[in-house]
Amino acid sequence: MSVDGEAVRLKSEADEPGWEVDPDDEWGVAVITTVGRQLKLRREAAGMRAGQFGAAIGYGEDLVYKVEGGKRIPQREYLDRADEVLGAGGLLSAAWEDVKRVRYPRSVRALAQLEAKAVELTAYGTHNLHGLLQTADYMRALFEMRRPAHSQDQVERLVSARLGRKSIFERDPAPELCFVQEEATLRRPLGGKMVLRRQLEHLLELGQMRSVEIQVMPIDRAVHAGMGGEIQVLKFADGTAVGRAEGDFGSRPVSDLKHLRIMELRCGIIRAQALSPGESLAFIEQVLGET
Question: Which of 61, 114, 267, 283 to pair with 100, CA 20 to 30 A apart?
Fold first, then answer.
């Protein structure tokens, strides 16, 4: 395509990775199929061929067919441009409210919904930094190390989903967030030293927030209550809670009071054994200086 003699490059899947529809996600498939059908009906009613429509909104013909066929999740820009070109009066743009709820994998959506309601979160991490603490580059490096390997499309979708969860830091009133991280997670250069440096700087920024406490568990601790693995406990305004402990209770989220009491006990001891928040930020600054 060209405009006034200058070539215009249309967006393709390579430009927007990470937006494939999960065929096992029934709700997601239903939403994206419905939105795609509406886009196709409006395009045909306007008398536009797929290639012509794609050129008008800045996307390739193949991507248009995939969106209309419910095989590809449209991004907000796509819907806004389609609304403008097809004169939909805001109806296609409004579809974003439904699309954004299903653009992430089901497991991530469920976790994000819990985090969105939580008034308190306590988490202990062992092998890598907690997802809410990670930078985009750190996330990407982490997902690219999975075996068997994710496709690049899957990697980008997972990164986008995890970034979406970070809105928890913007809530008002803010939930109380406490993270205990093993020293090794601060030193392992996932993605390279520059990625690690930016990640450590990000931790120092988060650690300055009034509602966030980051603690470090030094590797030289002779007594350690967290040897069983990762733990996370979320508490809600109505007094209920849900937790998950690696290797315990089937490694699944539980809300049974007896199981929660065990996890809270461990978290309390782990926090007492770790460096204080102030000592931890100083420790992170030291590691940053050594990196």
Answer: 61
